[in-house]
Amino acid sequence: MTTPVPDAGDEVTVRPAERADLLAVVRIENESFPQPWPYDAFERFLGEPAFLVAETDGVIAGYVVADVTQQIGRALGHVKDIAVHPDYRGDGIGSTLLSRSLGVLAAHGAGTVKLEVRRSNDGAKRLYREFDFDPLRRVPAYYANGEDAIVMIRKLG
């Protein structure tokens, strides 16, 4: 199934994910990652304030999954997953989703946000650096295929 590329005038709406969005989210996940999350992983995050979808012209074009946990008495935001459908990449949807999720995490008390990114994913690392994420450490063999992850972190506020 192909989705038409949005016109420059198409409106992008970012909103909390709903159960009806999950199949579209899983399709994007499967097209975006070599080891995609299964449906039930997304289902567990329904209701999290920072599980957001980007919709354009009635089509789910991308999503972000993030949450806030308490660590050593501090609220830590964690961007767990973010992806944009291949037909919509390069339109700023990933930036919009990341920006909105950081706002939601800050509103829920997170003073710091972390994420993990594949060492080979230069496009994602570039996006995160644009949002002032700094590399913190490398985690060897983090991914199932043995690839290392880079943990990146950003202070909020």
From TrEMBL:
Gene3D superfamilies: 3.40.630.30. SUPFAM superfamilies: Acyl-CoA N-acyltransferases (Nat). Keywords: Acyltransferase, Transferase. GO terms for cellular component: NatA complex. PROSITE patterns: GNAT (PS51186). The keyword Secreted does not apply. Residues 12-157 form the N-acetyltransferase domain. InterPro entries: AcTrfase_RimI/Ard1, Acyl_CoA_acyltransferase, Ard1-like, GNAT_dom. GO terms for molecular function: protein-N-terminal amino-acid acetyltransferase activity. PANTHER family: N-TERMINAL ACETYLTRANSFERASE, N-TERMINAL AMINO-ACID N(ALPHA)-ACETYLTRANSFERASE NATA. This is Ribosomal-protein-alanine acetyltransferase. It comes from Natrinema gari JCM 14663. The lineage of its organism: Archaea, Methanobacteriati, Methanobacteriota, Stenosarchaea group, Halobacteria.
